């Protein structure tokens, strides 16, 4: 008999086919995320779990599954999983690094350009019928070319964002809490967080959410930023103190923000929705057909490897 794998949401078909060779699949039948109780029920008889970044895989879920050997997340970030507890129980926790790097860097750049050049605001303006012809002062934004880009978190995605910045002749500064192997073949300057916040025109976040990075960008950090600073976040919402961001944007203490992630997804504060100087996306950093397929296949290979007693391609514990 094949072991049971519980899949908390349907993922791209090539991965389903691959998983069916090795597992009996139990797939969330609904077109929505499962509730916590449904997760607990679903995982009970499973030896393998493939979950999403929106599933709270806490102690309760993990201990409901006495046969569980692997938690394979269909994401690179794993702040939603009680990794320490899983480790104590000898359960492997896996993720999908690498395959979404370029796609997330692309989306980061889409947000940089959209915020600096007021793309969403301009389109809303036009669709409302407000475009009456070319105007000298209509929708003036900020240049990107030649500016200073401040990258907070210089891992794989941070470096992929930096690579794209060379085409815009930008000065690139970065902050990373631990020293990183930065082998980029162009000039970048490592700096402390305060200097980065003071000097960067565009600040972009590429950090995992941990106890240390929770609200890394708050009141004091906004106070250090330039008046025309632009803040981009495609990492995790809670790295920014959202209340302080709303204040900084409403008081026009910074120029604008481009967000793909939020503190309490999918809840977006009404005050944020009402602001013009912020571009808001529904957590689509890795959402391309090719990348989501690669992520699904990697999540599948992680689960299969653990069940076969092999080292999985991407294990975090
Ligand atoms: C991840 O994998 O952590 C991304 O946020 C998914 O888009």
UniProtKB/TrEMBL annotation:
The keyword NAD applies. Keywords: NAD, Oxidoreductase. InterPro entries: D-isomer_2-hydroxyacid_DH, D-isomer_2_OHA_DH_cat_dom, D-isomer_DH_CS, D-isomer_DH_CS1, D-isomer_DH_NAD-bd, NAD(P)-bd_dom_sf. Belongs to the D-isomer specific 2-hydroxyacid dehydrogenase family. It is an enzyme of class 1 (oxidoreductase). Its EC number is 1.1.1.26. PROSITE patterns: D_2_HYDROXYACID_DH_1, D_2_HYDROXYACID_DH_2, D_2_HYDROXYACID_DH_3. This is Glyoxylate reductase (Glycolate:NAD+ oxidoreductase). Gene3D superfamilies: NAD(P)-binding Rossmann-like Domain. The lineage of its organism: Bacteria, Pseudomonadati, Candidatus Cloacimonadota, Candidatus Cloacimonadia, Candidatus Cloacimonadales.
């Amino acid at each position: 008999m094949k072991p049971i794998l519980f899949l908390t949401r349907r993922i791209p078909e090539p991965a389903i086919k691959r998983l069916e060779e090795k597992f009996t699949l139990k797939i969330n039948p609904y077109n929505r995320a499962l509730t916590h109780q449904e997760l607990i029920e679903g995982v009970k008889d499973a030896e393998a779990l493939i979950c999403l970044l929106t599933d709270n895989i806490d102690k309760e879920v993990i201990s409901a599954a006495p046969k569980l050997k692997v938690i394979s997340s269909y994401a690179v970030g794993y702040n939603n999983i009680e990794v320490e507890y899983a480790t104590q129980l000898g359960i492997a926790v896996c993720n999908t690094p690498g395959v979404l790097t370029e796609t997330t860097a692309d989306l980061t750049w889409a947000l940089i350009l959209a915020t600096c050049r007021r793309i969403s605001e301009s389109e809303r303006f036009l669709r409302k019928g407000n475009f009456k012809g070319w105007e000298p002062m209509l929708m003036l934004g900020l240049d990107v070319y030649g500016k200073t880009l401040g990258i907070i978190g210089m891992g794989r995605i941070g470096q992929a964002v930096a690579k794209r910045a060379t085409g815009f002749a930008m000065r690139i500064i970065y902050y990373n809490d631990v020293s990183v192997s930065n082998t980029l073949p162009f000039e970048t300057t490592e700096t402390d967080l305060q200097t980065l916040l003071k000097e960067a025109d565009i600040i972009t976040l590429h950090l995992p959410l941990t106890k240390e990075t929770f609200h890394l960008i708050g009141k004091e950090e906004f106070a250090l930023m330039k008046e025309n600073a632009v803040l981009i976040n495609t990492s995790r919402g809670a790295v920014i103190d959202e209340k302080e961001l709303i204040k900084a944007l409403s008081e026009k203490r910074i120029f604008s923000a481009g967000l793909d992630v939020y503190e309490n997804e999918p809840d977006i504060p009404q005050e944020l929705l009402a602001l013009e100087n912020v571009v808001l996306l529904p957590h689509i950093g890795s959402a391309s057909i090719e990348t989501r397929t690669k992520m699904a296949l990697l999540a599948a290979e992680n689960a299969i490897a653990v069940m076969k007693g092999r080292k999985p391609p991407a294990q975090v514990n």
